[in-house]
Design a protein that fits this description.
Elements (H helix, E strand, L loop, with lengths): L1 E6 L4 E8 L1 H15 L15 H8 L5 H20 L8 E6 L6 E8 L4 E2 L7 E3 L7 H14 L2 E5 L8 E10 L2 E14 L21 E7 L13 E15 L5 H6 L5 H35 L1 E2 L3 H21 L4 H8 L3 H28 L6 H14 L4 H7 L2 H22 L2 E3 L4
Parallel strand pairs: 6-13
Antiparallel strand pairs: 1-2, 2-4, 3-4, 5-12, 7-11, 8-9, 8-11, 10-11
Helix pairs in contact: 1-3, 4-6, 6-9, 7-9, 9-12
Length: 430
Amino acid sequence: MNVQTELIGEKKAKLLIEIPAENFRKALNRVYNRQKGRLVVPGFRKGKAPRKVLEKLYGQGIFYEDAANELISEEYPKAYEECGLDIVSRPDIEVQTAEEGKPFVFTAVVALRPDVHLSQYKGVEVRRIDTGVSEEEIDQEIDNELKTNSRSVTVEDEAREGDTVLIDYEGFSEGVAFEGGKGENFPLELGSHSFIEGFEDQLIGVEAGDEVQVDVTFPDEYHAPDLAGKDAVFIVKVHEVRRPEVPELDEEYIEDIGFDSLDEYRDDVRSRIETRKKDDAKRRHEDEAIHTIADESEIDVPEEMIETQLNSALNDYANNIMQNGFSFSDYLKMTGMTVERMRDQLRPETVDRIRASLILEEIAKVEDLKATEEDVQEKIEEAAKNYHMKVEDLEKDLPDKERESLKSQIAMEKAIKLILDNVVEVDRED
């Protein structure tokens, strides 16, 4: 493979990549062997027609596109590594020559990492955040924990907000049952706003054994267009009313959760709240400081870099949805969202994330902040613990590219620490 690079315009480059003719010939043969069984040729058994016969019948270039795509996917990553450029975008590929007997030639236009002209990053002012813990906050935390540890008990009286009713229900619009409007033995917490607005309110006061009619109006923006804005009636059968029973804050409870006294428990709660507040303050100071540095620094982020990151964010989003059992297209239909609207929503956050990364990388470079082998080993051991793996197994399976990415991440973490170690806390309003 031969790679030539040419700078074209501000922070853009064109890679001219030439692959030997023999490689293209082999790629054509691989594609032919994969596809020949799907092509029908009179006079030949399926999959037995020679390549030349297929090319004559279907056109000489029948296998060229797939062979070209195969070579590009194989050879571009090698060219990426060989050229030594700091590429920050996906390539814009254009095939120049694809002809058997000649070298396969294609170009890749890419965006390069932009220059970063840093503003002052030491002594950045951030708002002072009080991390002290009041007695009232401790009381509230304990109250929340008591509610979390409550158990649900069946009661015989009328349902009230906070209770859970076990119900059968069926919905009708204009007298006709509609799809998705029926459920059996469904536990509904009153006040959770899980159902259509007004549904849960009409179950306040019901008792086990009651059968009631619930009248609602679907919102105009409801995900099912045939129900949007329409009135509906639900017939609801109540099987059971359950109420959370909050434990008493007594000696038995305190012993059950592992403490010797109420004072010891309160001290533990205070410590946990304080840790949470300090962690939150650190995150907020980090965001505020980086945002300030970004606003005052000069960075011209190339559009190609933004598009690459947006595509990556969308792919991650779609994969998360699919892991939850939905297809991305079904999700878009259910939410009334479009890919373009999602891109528009993700864009500001994506640009901010790119600018923050560029700033941290530049600070790490200026300050010569690098990951040591001890730093890398510590991260690997932490990951092995989180994934319940042996350290040696994780190290063995860690590609060089991932190790380099890990080093870059550590360097940026050191840049963040440098920024936070030098911030100046000031009193000011949010």
